[in-house]
Specification:
Length: 196
């Protein structure tokens, strides 16, 4: 397993679907030299998603192959859809960046935390039920997809207390600024007397 070194940190955005986790992650990352690590999934892309930008969209067959080769450090199945993170992608991201980020469901966030301990900072992003539903409608998710997401809303919200930080995402630019300040505070903590 990869050993996190020195100033390296993994920021994990988690929370209910439609809370704006991905948007905040991207916005905060643009202020730092941060790379994202994408999950692999067997579900088909939504109309606003791009392969290699939002996820690596793969066939069931490819996913099972990667699984058999033990490429995934973390994989889950939700409603018959598989999601997984390749360790190699984390290793490669750390070759050029000290800070990387992922967007994961609570199961994935918990798994990474248990593996990498203090090297992982979980940022829980949430919004109230109505806001989350409205955001999913705004991005034209089908009623069926929204229902599926909302079935996990309460369970996902319970994970908030386990995370190191939580932000209610009522205004993305403002919250992204707060998240950036938080990331900055982690960078400051890593400075030692010899850096001056």
């Amino acid at each position: 397993m990869y050993q996190i070194k020195g100033n390296e940190k993994i920021f994990v955005y988690t929370g209910p679907d439609g809370s704006g986790r991905k948007t905040l992650g991207k916005m905060a990352a643009s202020a730092f030299d941060m790379e994202t690590v994408l999950s692999y999934t067997t579900r088909s892309p939504r109309h606003y998603e791009k392969d290699g930008e939002d996820y690596h969209f793969v066939t069931e067959e490819t996913f099972k192959q990667l699984q058999a080769q033990q490429e995934f450090i973390e994989s889950v199945e939700i409603d018959g859809i598989h999601y997984g993170i390749r360790e190699q992608d984390i290793v490669e991201a750390f070759q050029n960046h000290d800070l990387i980020y992922l967007t994961l469901n609570p199961e994935g966030a918990e798994k990474l935390k248990s593996m990498y301990g203090d090297g992982v900072v979980r940022i829980f992003v949430y919004a109230d039920r109505d806001t989350v539903i409205q955001r999913q409608r705004d991005r034209q998710d089908s009623d069926e997809v929204i229902q599926r997401h909302m079935a996990y809303y309460d369970e996902t919200m319970r994970y908030k207390t386990k995370c190191e930080h939580a932000f209610e995402n009522f205004d993305s630019p403002q919250v992204a600024y707060q998240v950036s300040e938080l990331i900055e505070s982690y960078l400051d903590r890593n400075l030692t007397a010899t850096d001056y």
